[in-house]
Amino acid sequence: MTVSVVRARLLLACALLLAAPVGTAAEPAPATPTALSPASIEHARTLRDQALDGTMAWDMVEALTTEIGPRLAGSEAEARARDWAVSRLRTMGFENVRVEPFTIPGWERGEEHAALLAPFPQPLEITTLGGSVGTPAAGLEAELVSFESLAALRAAAPGSLDGKIAYVSHAMQRTQDGSSYGFYGELRRVGASVAAEKGALALLIRSIGTDSHRFPHTGQMRYAEGVARIPAAALSNPDADQIERVAQRGQPLRVHLALSPQASAEAPSGNVIAEIVGRERPEEIVIIGGHLDSWDLGTGAIDDGAGVAITTAAAKLILDSGKRPRRTIRLILWGAEEVGLLGGYEYLEAHREQLPQHVIGTESDFGAERIWQLTAQVSPAGQAVVDIMSELLAPLGVARGSMDKSGSGPDLVPMVEAGLPSLRLVQNGTDYFDLHHTHDDTLDKIDPAALDQNVAAYVVFTWLAADSTVNFWR
Q1: How many Å apart are CA 452 and CA 53, to the nearest integer?
Q2: How much of the chain exceeds pLDDT 90, in percent?
Q3: I need a labelling partner for 421 at 20 to 30 A (CA). Which of 29, 154, 170, 234 fits?
Q4: How far apart are CA 134 and CA 97, in angstroms?
């Protein structure tokens, strides 16, 4: 908990004590600790049912992916997406629409080619990992040394990979909640530096994904300080299978790898913000949103055009209802999420002094399938509001999950780590990593009815959180 949060709570406690008449007990707590009237709860139900009848979510993700397409962080396309979003949000009638700009390290993919040269020559489908350096212009040609896991690569002796290319084969498994991604994704994030410490010239990994198509998965990686920076790329899962079958023949493998990414010191990005200003407590903020940037292979439909559309549609339903909640709803379309949650960290730095006024937040960033679970990380008082949300979400097929850890969505991680209460509406991610960060992340994978179910859930959360007076902080 931050010092500012502690100070704010102490001041509030003192104010409540001073407000009580001397020699008398403080007034009893209201019968409804959530301060949500039956009319307010009924309004949430009405908004939910409106969403199920159809929303503008499909139209928005269709427009974003068609009119802008892929939106690599720091690129000209991401800049066009910010302009597109600002224009749309203003036309919709939101208040205080603006961009909070920041700069990030720039990176572009360039050309990428790989081939197995021996013992059985054939092309390989690969993609460069985000942030990777390139090979020499003519590429690299070297023996390929296979490891079954990141742990096995770490166990290799220093110098054992001198002049060679490392390959790591471990295969990510499907889960409904995506929980395997953190474990398997570590290879993508740190594998290049681990391989470089062993002397490797480059790193190839099996894609961190679950599909069986020749669509390799990209994603951000990072280099450790003081370690040589070597090129890193991912093989599609079928190509990884092929490499492993060849290796089983017991003959040395030799590959050619050519990558030509370009990096720059600075590139523009920014968070797009729009609001519905609260009628009684405008300084208190409920955050919803999705991230505007995407990887450059597909069109960023499920990651995260869907999240942008779902949360915007939920806010628009509230705006069009003619009823304002007590608190301000702040819709944030985050920038530069894919390259390290940079929009989230920039927002926290820009609003750190106002952090105690942010009462709760969530983000839609796990595709476009139906929501099946609600989790939350809030105060005991906040649980009363979550209870009401759960009752209204149950008819949508949303079950109550853990109340100790919410997840919240990646862009809110910096604020959640600083103490922000959070809630997560968990989508069915069984097939998410078939599409995530690949050429296959395109609009045709989205079901409009599933989008509307998401909007229905988000509008219930957003209205009830913003129209309550409960303190969600714990």
Answers
A1: 8
A2: 91
A3: 29
A4: 39
Q: What is the pLDDT of residues 392-404, one digit of tens each?
A: 999 999 999 877 7
Question: Tens digits of per-residue pLDDT, 329-371?
Answer: 999 999 999 999 999 999 999 999 999 999 999 999 999 999 9
What DSSP designation does 250 have?
T
How many Å apart are CA 221 and CA 200, to the nearest integer?
Answer: 16
CA distances, 465 to each of 12, 30, 263 (Å): 20, 18, 42
Strand 281-291 to 202-206 pairing: unpaired
Spell out the domains of the chain, with CATH numbers in brackets. 3-21+32-106+266-467 (3.40.630.10), 110-260 (3.50.30.30)
The β-bridge partners of 130 are 220
Confidence at residue 403, expressed as pLDDT on a 0 to 100 scale: 73
Among 11-15, 359-363, 432-436, whose mean pLDDT is lowest?
11-15
**Of 167, 165, 178, 188, which is closest to residue 210 (Cα–Cα)?**
178
Whole-structure pTM value: 0.91
**For residues 171 and 233, what is the distance between their CA atoms, to the nearest angstrom?**
15
- Mean pLDDT across the chain, nearest whole number? 92
Report, as residue numbers or ranges, the catalytic residues: 337
CA 389 vs CA 259, 370, 425, 456: distances in Å: 49, 17, 11, 11
Distances (CA, A) of 241 to 86, 205, 206, 235, 248: 45, 11, 9, 9, 11
The number of angstroms, rounded, from the C-alpha of 289 to the middle of its chain's C-alpha atoms is: 10
Beta-strand runs (E) in 109-242: 112-118, 122-124, 126-128, 140-147, 165-168, 202-206, 232-235
pLDDT score for 407? 75
C-alpha separations of 176 from 181, 182, 285, 348 in Å = 11, 14, 31, 30
